Amino acid sequence: MIPLYEKRKERLSIFHKVSRHVSPHLHNAMEIVYVTDGNLELGVGQELFHMEKGDFAIVFPDVIHHYQVFCPGGSKAYYLLASSALGGQFLEDMRKYCPADPVIKSSNLHPDIPNAVRSLYRNKDNPSVVEQAYTQIILARSMSCFELVEKSSIGGNDIIYQTVSYVAGHFKEEISLDTMAKNLGVSKYVLSRVFSGTFHRNFNQYLNEQRLDYVCTLLECTNRSITDICMEAGFESQRTFNRAFREKYRMTPREYRNKSKENILSVQQCHS
Q1: I want to staple 135 with a disulfide (CB 3.0 to 4.6 A). Which of 57, 86, 187, 211 is the partner?
Q2: Is the confidence at residue 75, as pLDDT, over 60?
Q3: Is 267 within the bounds of a domain?
Q4: Is the pTM of this model over 0.90?
């Protein structure tokens, strides 16, 4: 079965809902699950992980996963979908790796994690004010609990995993569909069908989205110049970068950085 690819446009979405079967899928967001009632099975790659009430899990961006529920109506959980741009200092690891076991049992879960999840849910109607701060708390408290492995290792020879892993490791470089196909040992036409059929975009569109996610992290978390940031992310020129950024975010990189700082300041003032 070819997994469904979902392109998430929102920076953050959170739901508290009854769990149900969900077929294999992947998306460009990290998915966070916190079970509040009953139990469920989280499938990642070829493995199935059991989750009970109070357990927590993270599925990294572009990792195929699914859910199975054997007590319909009796299982409920928070489901949080957060843009990889909110990954901050953890973005590089989330691009290249994934947890060998994505579940943290309730007995080992830091209390800051469920508190941050509930805070995000309470602010779901106005998430931009708190999304970055609380997402960073969740990641800071959970990442040290995971043993990270290469994404490609959980997918074997799956061309989708190979594609995701290759772009994650080379997006800062000058790469093309031809060179990527050669390095992966597949036809560029096969690779082109992966991008169009699975990711619903062409190679250049997918590549630019990965670069822009990285750019947003640097704009939010550093004071580096915008020129340096766009060049490090792999864009061939500032003009190309500015056009791609405006098309996606409907604002300039400087406006994005200023808005991000204002949101962080609002959170700090609320908790001071």
Answers
A1: 86
A2: yes
A3: no
A4: no
